[in-house]
Amino acid sequence: MASICAACEKSSEVGGRIYNCDSCRRPLHADCIGLTATEIKALDLRQRVLKLFCLDCEKGLACLPEVLCKLNNLTDTVNKIDKFIFGNEDSTASLFKSEIVNEINDRVLRKNNVIFYNAKESDSELPEERRNFDLKIVMKSLSKICTVSETDIVKVLRLGKIKSDGKPRPIKIIFNDHGLALKILKDKHKCEKPYAINGDLTLQQRDQLKALREELDILNKDEELKTIKFINGSPKIVNKRDYEKGKENENVKKDQLKNRRKN
C-alpha cells in the first residue's frame, strides 16, 4: 500500500519518494520538505547518520531548551507541593494522589479517540449492520478532513443507550495512532454540517471547559472579542485578534523555514 504524504496528502505514486520524520514518523515527500540531492543521498545510506524532522518537529526541537527549563521549574514546584502535602501522608492525601493518577491514566486511554456528533442511527436491529452503517458515515465525513483508511480505525461505537426522542447518540472513534486523532481535531472545522467533532474529554476536562465557557460568556457580554482555543492540549481563553495574528506569524515562519531548506 502506497504511503500518503502528511503535507500534500498525495501518495508516493503521485509525488515521488517518501521519507518518514525521525520523530513523529509522519510520511513526507522529499519535494514537500525541500530536501536537497545531497540530503536525499545521505538519507538513503544503509547506516545513515543524518536525521530528518518535519517542520512541526523541527520547531519543537527549537523550543526544547525553553521546555526543559520550564520542566525543571515545574518539577521543583511539584516536589515542593508533594513534600508539603504528602510529607506526613494520611488517608486524605493518599486519596488525592490516587485521583491524580486515575485522571492521568484516563487521559492516556482517551488520547487516540475523537467523538463524532449528529450522525443518524441505523434502523437495523443487527449490531454488525449498525456498526457498518456508522463506519460508512464516519469514513465519508473524515475524508473531507484528511486521508483516513478503515485500517486506521480500531473501533467505532455509540455512547449511551438509545434515546426515546430519536436523538442520535455520539459515536466514539478509536484510532490506532495518536497523531491522526490530533490532526483530525486540529482540522475539525473542515467537518461538514450537521456533523461535529470533539476530543474525548475526561469528566474533569469537561468540567473545566464548562467553567471556561461560562467565564467566556461574561467576558463577551458587550462585545465578542475573546474565544476558547486549545493550546498545548489545554483550553484557554484568548483574544481573537492576538491569536489569529500569532497563527499568521507562525505560518510565515514555517514558509520561511521551508524556503531556506529548499535553498
TrEMBL record:
The keyword Zinc-finger applies. InterPro entries: Znf_FYVE_PHD, Znf_PHD-finger, Znf_RING/FYVE/PHD. The keyword Metal-binding applies. Pfam families: PHD (PF00628). Residues 2-60 form the PHD-type domain. GO terms for molecular function: zinc ion binding. Keywords: Metal-binding, Zinc, Zinc-finger. This is PHD-type domain-containing protein. It comes from Gryllus longicercus.
